[in-house]
Fold:
Amino acid sequence: MASKYIDLSTVKFFMNNVQELETVLEKERFVDHDLESVNLYVDSVKQFADRELFPYFKEMDENPAHYKDGSIHVHQQVEKMMKEGGSMGLIAAPFNYEDGGLQLPLLAHTAANYILDAANNHLPGYSGLTSGAAELIVEFASKDLKEKYTPKMLTGEWGGTMCLTEPQAGSSLSDIVTKATPTDDGQYKISGQKIFISGGDHQYADNIVHLLLARIEGAPAGTKGISLFVVPKMRLKEDGELLFNDVTTVADFQKMGQKGYCTTHLSFGDKDDCQGYLVGEENNGLNYMFLMMNGARIAVGRGASAIACGAYYASLEYANERPQGRKLSSDGTKNLKDKQSLIIEHPDVRRMLLLQKSMVEGSMNLIFKAAKYYDLQHNSADDKEKNKYHTLLEMIIPVVKTYPSEAGIYSINNGLQVLGGYGFCSDFILQQYYRDIRISSIYEGTTGIQSQDLLGRKMMLNNGEGAKLLLEEIKKTIEKADQDDELKEWASSLNNQLDQSQKILFHLMPFAIKGDYERFLADASIFMEFFSLIIVGWSWLEIGVATKHALSISNSTLDSKFYQGKLDALEYFYVYELPKTKGLAEILLHPSSVTIKKKDKVIN
Amino acid sequence: MASKYIDLSTVKFFMNNVQELETVLEKERFVDHDLESVNLYVDSVKQFADRELFPYFKEMDENPAHYKDGSIHVHQQVEKMMKEGGSMGLIAAPFNYEDGGLQLPLLAHTAANYILDAANNHLPGYSGLTSGAAELIVEFASKDLKEKYTPKMLTGEWGGTMCLTEPQAGSSLSDIVTKATPTDDGQYKISGQKIFISGGDHQYADNIVHLLLARIEGAPAGTKGISLFVVPKMRLKEDGELLFNDVTTVADFQKMGQKGYCTTHLSFGDKDDCQGYLVGEENNGLNYMFLMMNGARIAVGRGASAIACGAYYASLEYANERPQGRKLSSDGTKNLKDKQSLIIEHPDVRRMLLLQKSMVEGSMNLIFKAAKYYDLQHNSADDKEKNKYHTLLEMIIPVVKTYPSEAGIYSINNGLQVLGGYGFCSDFILQQYYRDIRISSIYEGTTGIQSQDLLGRKMMLNNGEGAKLLLEEIKKTIEKADQDDELKEWASSLNNQLDQSQKILFHLMPFAIKGDYERFLADASIFMEFFSLIIVGWSWLEIGVATKHALSISNSTLDSKFYQGKLDALEYFYVYELPKTKGLAEILLHPSSVTIKKKDKVIN
Structure:
């Protein structure tokens, strides 16, 4: 197995220099932290990942979480992740002190979790979902529920989940049928089936606290009639004793990848004794859930980028060690007396490595940027600033979730190819990364759904003011880059693409205006691909500006190869990736509507 | 599991109408066959695949071939494939009567094997490699070797393999070190290790006949010193008895996919008693092997396209049965009183299905075309015609191997996405197709190697006369399509792309001329991607012309939906795939050489 899964200097450069952690730390809430303390925290997480996550990565794939005799059995490192990780604050980090947290910026928490994901993506989901579930309780539930359930979640003694999907509904939450029936004591009885529940059960948690969407009897149809409940596996009696709450693990889902992260099928109320506790107001459940969505989507993008990151270093290590073939001489032949070259000397292998680096680092920085926006949205004193960063985050969030997931597949596909036949073999790790990442473009809203969100909602946000604001931010980076001789070519390319995006929106908008939403959104996934390249191009330009700045000051701490690597990957992105917008634009501008169902058309 | 894995009408339409099987059957060698008999043969293969291959597809993945106690254990259907398949002529079909064959055109054999591959890609490799090994013996070995070894190979009692790869050499055949030492009786003793040997051993063959590359002591360095040997696992004594020939199975390779098709590590001559029989002349081994290469590459492209074909029908079936979500109304909302739509009604799902169909059928027809070229090359009486088809086959063969492999990954990736979360689950079949196809772009020459062949050799073939001939063929199809109102837009698009390809070659050529082969070939894989879109665009235009012709005659046997499906997939390809050449051309024309190793550059 490879020995490196992440480059800590890159993580810190993006966190400290490109995203300027200090501007976040200036906010009142983070007064106890400084650059040094946060970086020490990140170091300690890296050590934890080196020791407790990375060494078990392959083993967890080979010994999948599984259902047996009514419960789910997971790898022992789940306990380490939850309890040791919990005691380090890996679950509680972003929470307030009063709730047992560390009041760390999401940017720092995201950097730390990126490292964990890159080390072993089968583990951070357990802590991440527990954190997310606890956050919903802290934000929206009663003081009583918060005091009863969150403390043990934040220490990792208990787990937490999100229970949305049902067999008949899938992504269509309007069609949820899990029932909540009011009882005389002001609570609810829950009955229904939930599937695809990550971290839904395991032997290392005394309790699992489910945040569950259900429909109170008589509620309006569709998403407006959905309420949010806390439904623990074990409910707490007044004396503190745990009592089984009629939440049964029915089965698990065996999967192509991420096998150590259990996916369960849960049944609520088989014996009519499942208590649920309403969170906030009736019928407002989806709104609460959606307020958590940006954080969850940052986390999925982070995981995908990190998986691709691990795969990148594994293929890079192989390329640096494997001799094969020879350099072509000037008559196009090979000199057999030469030793075989290392494969990293072949341009095609370098192309596959640079492709990976440009996708991995471009997306890592984008994810950190999203986390920074989140921090500024939630911690600015000024409403205008809050709104600004909220809007910017809303604008980029579909890309933050989708680009790392989709480009990650492509990136790892190239990493696997670097290994040739060995890439396909189970003894080598690339095939595992290849399988693991495939879920990212499905869960937490598929690429199709993210694309509809991007084109259908976000591009229209506040009558286009959101898009305008984003454009201005991008233009600021372009202006900075334009002042640098080496970056100005890329600045100009990105600027051209912005113009192209306007042209495309002007072409598509009229369909929406005349009510033909089907046509308007038919190519949303193509638009996502197009727009993602612009956003990641922006991310790279930002990295370029920070890199040139670091090179220009005398006391930069990293060696010149570190910076040269960034500039090369930036060039790669602009020469090999950004031009793909050309073809995508042509698709988007084409009048054909071949994908829309019409009379007498079949797909056969 | 899905119930359909291929559309037999499509196979026959491409074989009979688009590739015009009759023009092949006119050749002297095929005098005993006619359209009807060949189609009946294809029907019988379909029935065999329905009965003996498809039902075991998932089971073979779940019970991988494996090494135990010195030998390899495979699924029982391997015996069915080899012996029942063998008795149907599935191994011997393309051979001459005198060698025990059916003298069937490769076009028919390819259509038949496409069906087998689509049904269960874990099985046809066993028969295919046996056929290939026997072909080498028949073509180049002595009469004695042929009489001793091929009859039982062609009936499927014995297996056959190709032993090229060695641990230290990988794709670099110049570096193979397996030794052949002349003995007093005019034979050779073989000693060495071969890895990644498909079908290298199993319990259902009394003997496995290896065609092995080795270096005779004192031979010139590199590829000019490689000889080809027949090295049976059991050698035949004069009395017909089988005697162990010191070929040991050392281990197997467990893989991400195609798990039922064993991949072995063989050791030759551990006890200094491994006899090898020279095929043809000393040091000419690679030439013999290369003469078989086009057939082998057609077979790999065929397999990849067929795997994607199976995946397409599985995702199509799911999309036709799964209700989820609702159509948007003219105010952009959904009416909850509507029943949920089938997902096949959503444009984004239709896009993913049409994407698959356009890749699967575009590549299927291309593969059939390559097989037809092979038939015309080998069976024309006229040398000029022979040369013409030989050249055309040489020109397209890197694409025939690569496009189905690379686009197949992309196609199945979309098929998996159609199923959402279920696509990632082991109970559903898409994840298996996704894993299985991943080997196709690696074995039989990786995409990188095929791309170097395409740009470095084929584009230069006969000083560019090869490219010119191919261009003329494509132009013929364009001219036909140009006369049809519905096709002329696509004809014109393809013509523009041909011009673009000339421009790119004019840009790249000077690098070769001035001896900078590294730069010339640095973007060969991008050129492959670009050129493949043109070739598959041509394939679709050809399908379009045949479709319009079929619609214009009154007695066409298929219903109009069949033909409409072809025209829609053609439109999809031209609207959504061909435009990608735009971005690729921009990459190819960019002056950057970021992927080429230079002083002080590192990838880190």
Observations:
- Chain B has a mean pLDDT of 96.
- Chain B has 19 helices and twelve strands.
- The longest helix of chain B spans residues 285-321.
